[in-house]
Amino acid sequence: MNSDNDRNFLEFVLSSNVLSFGKFKTKAGRDSPYFFNTGKFSNGKLLATLADFYAKKIIYIIKHHKLSIDCLYGPAYKGIPLVSAITVTLYHYSLNLEIAYDRKEEKTHGEGGQIVGDVNGKNVLIIDDVISAGLSSKRAIEFVRKQNGNVSGILVALDRMERGESSDSENFKNTTEEIMAMTGVPVFSLADLSDLKNCGRIDSDNAKQIDLYIQKYGSCVK
């Protein structure tokens, strides 16, 4: 955990029950002992607070990682309200970025196409809620590049520190490392699984379940 912003973010999602423990199925079909439920950011106060955490992280990575960002891209569907709220928040921090997002199905009337907004020739930061096996992140990178956009990076709320499912994934300790190595795209997060385990807010049983899960699907969490 590298800042007070990241530490406060974990306090926020735990106290809001956005991050909960139990038995859940991930998009990759894995049985997970915890779940990050972006759908619980269901009112103005919660969404505004979340957007502020993202906005401050974006300002941080622009300054400290020298990323050039012109546009935020949100994969449908969860990414759409995220980029909308984040860009409004960034505007209040005197940073005016564009937004873009995709449709699940290509539109055949009106302006047509599968993308709303324009990433052509722009430096794009992909925004998502979590990264686990990397399925949605890889699709987003491919989609933006097909639209002639330059993917500057990916920013997620929580890095689950898992490996992907392909044979190539076995060569990497987790999906974040794989994406960075295979695509050249840096991946950033507000917090990762190691931060969660060590934040002092979860009991020993849940910490043990996290250990078992990550031993099966990813790198070791210290």
Walk me through this protein's architecture.
The protein has about 220 residues and is of the alpha/beta class. Helix content is about 40%, strand content about 25%. The strands form two sheets. Strands 5-4-3-6-7-8 form a six-stranded mixed beta sheet, with helices on both faces. The chain has a two-stranded antiparallel sheet with strand order 1-2. Helix 3 (about 80-90) links the parallel strand 3 (about 70-75) and strand 4 (about 100-105). It is globular and about 45 Å long. The mean pLDDT is about 90.
Layout of strands and helices, then pairs:
Blueprint: H1 4-15, E1 19-25, E2 31-36, H2 44-65, E3 71-74, H3 79-92, E4 98-107, E5 113-116, E6 123-131, H4 135-146, E7 150-159, H5 175-183, E8 187-192, H6 193-197, H7 204-217
Parallel strand pairs: 3-4, 3-6, 6-7, 7-8
Antiparallel strand pairs: 1-2, 4-5
Helix pairs in contact: 2-3
